[in-house]
Please model this.
Amino acid sequence: MLIAKVVGTTVSTIKDEKLTGRKLLILRQTDETGAPFGKPYVAVDTLDAGVGDLVLTAHGSGGRQTALTKNSPVDAVIMAVIDHLQVNGEVVYCKE
Amino acid sequence: MLIAKVVGTTVSTIKDEKLTGRKLLILRQTDETGAPFGKPYVAVDTLDAGVGDLVLTAHGSGGRQTALTKNSPVDAVIMAVIDHLQVNGEVVYCKE
Amino acid sequence: MLIAKVVGTTVSTIKDEKLTGRKLLILRQTDETGAPFGKPYVAVDTLDAGVGDLVLTAHGSGGRQTALTKNSPVDAVIMAVIDHLQVNGEVVYCKE
Amino acid sequence: MLIAKVVGTTVSTIKDEKLTGRKLLILRQTDETGAPFGKPYVAVDTLDAGVGDLVLTAHGSGGRQTALTKNSPVDAVIMAVIDHLQVNGEVVYCKE
Amino acid sequence: MLIAKVVGTTVSTIKDEKLTGRKLLILRQTDETGAPFGKPYVAVDTLDAGVGDLVLTAHGSGGRQTALTKNSPVDAVIMAVIDHLQVNGEVVYCKE
Model:
């Protein structure tokens, strides 16, 4: 899984019918302190995450192992909202 | 999923029989404003997308979760045409 | 899928039994004009492609959705030989 | 599989229900001597690994081939704790 | 598939039970002449390959399409030992 920050939202009228009602959020991968890097990607949100949240995303077929994404043409899902991250015994990120 | 711009088309006479009638488009990944970067890749179009459209592509086995791509030797599909993208509360891309 | 050029061939005596009789070609990814870049990779050829051909390769489980690669320990297949590629309305590659 | 070092832990209250009770650790890929490089990623721990351990992680659907991760929305699992690594006949890493 | 050189071995006492008796080798990807580059990765050996051998590795679910790796938490397998490689009509690698 990747640590990522929710940075935005997408709107699509024309889409695969299995995506009707699905929330597709824009994310950027972050390091363990929540600092984003690299280019944005998009994942299905099944946990009502919001812009600014630090989350974990599962990719590939792992992105379809939820009730809302099963058998859909998607390859990434938000499967956890992060409360805090600890590295080498020190808290490096804490949700506000 | 990746945000990508449709930049071109492919024509192949010799191909796997399951690809007969499938439209294979050339795309380039973009950032959240629709600016392309990196090398081109190819995805099956099931939504009648056109050159210049900003779309989302699902990769891997996710690319075969549509009626038109099921069981085909493909690894990417266009599953949404983007209307607009919003980042940190600001609209950063809007379809013309 | 990736656009790639067939650049060579492999010979292996010791291999998984499901690969007996399979042609494993060496490819390099190319841009949309057929110019190769990056390191070589290997894919199963099911279309009798030849060295110099520009092809499309499907990766991951998509590489096993053909009659010749089903259930084999492979992760890439040539599933189309490219005739021509068009980018922004202009032909940028044409098979000789 | 990747060689990786366990560097930290994650805590999430809001998560997919299949992740209840799962330990999600932060890792960084290492070279063959155990020297980390690159950005962190997260994997499910099924072996009671601890911070500082050098481990192997399996990715993609391979991450769900354990009793604890089956059918869960995850894409990486720790499937071995490394005792020692030998390169070109020389021991380059040994667990303390 | 990737062209790779076997460079070392791993030993793990604590591991998923399905890995009991499996040989996990350290590899580095190579170019078509057998020159290694990049960071090491680990694959299951089902062909009794040895350190120094040039091999092909299949990744992802393709790594589990052998009798020895089926349903195991692994994502890469050695599925061929290379005898020779030919690029543009010239032999560029030949097993000693």
Observations:
- Strands of chain D lie at 2-11, 23-29, 41-45, 54-59, 76-81, 84-87, 90-94.
